[in-house]
Amino acid sequence: MNSSYNSSTTKPLFKGTQIVWYFLSLLEALLAFRFVLKFMGANPIAGFTSFIYAITWPFTAPFLAVFPKIAVQGSIFEWTTLLAMLVYWMVAFAIVRLFLMSKTVSTPEAAAKLDEQDK
Question: 71 — phi, psi (to 5°)?
Answer without folding.
Answer: -120, 135
